[in-house]
Structure formats: structure tokens, C-alpha cells
Specification:
The protein has 230 residues and is mainly beta. The protein has one domain (30-229). It has one helix at residues 2-28, and strands at residues 31-39, 61-65, 68-72, 75-80, 83-84, 95-99, 113-114, 120-130, 135-151, 154-170, 175-187, 196-207, 212-222, 227-229. The strands form two sheets. Strands 1, 2, 3, 6, 7, 8, 9 and 10 form an eight-stranded antiparallel beta sheet that branches. A six-stranded antiparallel beta sheet has the order 5-4-11-12-13-14, with no helix packed on it. The longest helix is centred in the first third of the chain and has 27 residues, at 2-28. It is elongated.
Length: 230
């Protein structure tokens, strides 16, 4: 009888302590803010770069307007369940925005184009934080592209436009995914001297034990080498 009373008293005394611990754990697993900031001096470390002349692993029409066509995959997953995604061929899906030839859906071969720039790179870090300000999910995504390519001495086009994720960290209990999508293409030059442009949208979703957060970031790039996040 005395033993039973002792155990009951111990449980009653311990209950507020367990409740307090539970509240702390809940606060740790609740996303309260997300920060996105540009990474200074991005590099090609741990990144796959496809130079002109290498066949795109996914060759399809992603978008098409008068005189300009985007070849590649319109939407692709860059993070799946917290893991970076790369195709079975080892190449990251990319998009090229080229002139459309007289035959619908046909573009010039890479050997017919010249004046390509070196790859241009911009990286952003995404950081999800909990109630205490601690990072529970973080990852970096990098946008690559090459620009300035001309066809028969005319125009400025884009190739090897892609997004890749790296430096991924996640606390227990969090799951996240990210996708990249080609939203649109346009000619921001003239009919005589076309300048190809493209808008990409990177969307990411983080799901914790208590809530879910969806965020997106858009990028504009063009054949002159401009790149702008908005």
C-alpha cells in the first residue's frame, strides 16, 4: 500500500516536468521562419556542369514562342525527401533556349552555334528555423547557365540552364522537397538580333511534425548574361 502511494505521488510530481519537456520538443519542431540569402562567391564544387556540345539527358520541347524554342525538361525535382536528385545518366537536367528553324520544333546543332560564355553561377541558401531560432532544415541551390551563343552571327541565346541542390541538412522529424520549373521564355531583343530570356521558379516544401511551409523563388536570365532573383 505504501509502495503504491509512493509511486502515485512520484508520477504526480513528475507530470509538470514531462509536460514542460514536451512543450520544448514541440517548439523545436515548429517552423516559425524561413530565410533565403545569396551565397557570396559560389563555386563549381560538388556541382555538375555540362558544357556546350554535351547532349541534354532529357530532350523535349519545354516552351515555344515565335522564333525561339526551349529544349529540355520543363519541371524537374532537385530535392526528393531531403536528398538531391540527379538523373541516372549522372547529368542534371538542363534547358537550352535556341532559335527555332523553319521546321517546327527543330533547332540548330551546337556545332552550328558560337561565342558561348563561360558558365555563370549564382547560389542561394535556404534556412528554416524553429521557435528558438535554430536551423532545422537548410540547403543551398545553385543556378547555372551559359549565354551569348549566336547562330550564323546573329542573336544571343542560352544553354545549360539548370538548378542543383547541395549542402543539405535536416533535423529529425523534418521532410522536404524542392522542384525547378521553367515558367516562360521571351525574346527581349529584336527580330533582327534576338536575345533569349527565361524565367525559372524554384519551389520548396518543408513538412515538420506540427506544420508545413511552402516557399518559392523566381529567377530571370537572358542571353546577355543577366541574372536576377525576384
Amino acid at each position: 500500500m505504501l509502495k503504491s502511494l509512493f509511486v502515485a505521488s512520484l508520477l504526480l510530481l513528475s507530470k509538470p516536468i514531462f509536460a514542460e519537456i514536451s512543450d520544448i520538443e514541440l517548439a523545436e519542431h515548429q517552423i516559425t521562419s524561413v530565410e533565403v540569402y545569396q551565397v557570396p562567391n559560389p563555386s563549381f564544387d560538388k556541382a555538375v556542369v555540362t558544357l556546350p556540345g554535351v547532349k541534354n539527358p532529357i530532350d523535349e520541347i519545354a516552351a515555344q514562342i515565335d522564333g525561339i524554342i526551349a529544349i529540355g525538361k520543363k519541371i524537374w525535382t532537385i530535392i526528393d525527401a531531403g536528398r538531391p536528385v540527379i538523373t541516372t545518366s549522372g547529368l542534371v537536367p538542363s534547358i537550352s533556349v535556341f532559335p527555332e528553324l523553319d521546321t517546327p520544333g527543330k533547332t540548330p546543332g551546337m556545332h552550328q552555334m558560337a561565342n558561348w560564355s563561360a558558365p555563370k553561377v549564382v547560389s542561394y541558401r535556404v534556412s528554416y528555423k524553429n521557435y528558438f531560432g535554430g536551423e532545422v532544415v537548410g540547403f543551398t541551390y545553385t543556378v547555372f547557365f551559359q549565354y551569348g551563343g549566336s547562330y550564323k552571327g546573329r542573336g544571343k541565346y542560352i544553354t545549360s540552364l539548370k538548378v542543383q541542390a547541395s549542402e543539405i541538412t535536416a533535423s529529425w522529424g523534418f521532410n522536404f522537397d524542392a522542384t525547378s520549373e521553367l515558367v516562360s521564355i521571351a525574346n527581349v531583343g529584336s527580330d533582327e538580333e534576338p536575345v533569349a530570356s527565361a524565367i525559372l521558379q524554384i519551389s520548396y516544401k518543408v513538412k515538420g511534425l506540427l506544420n508545413e511551409n511552402r516557399t518559392s523563388q523566381s529567377f530571370y536570365v537572358d542571353g546577355r548574361g543577366a541574372v536576377q532573383a525576384f
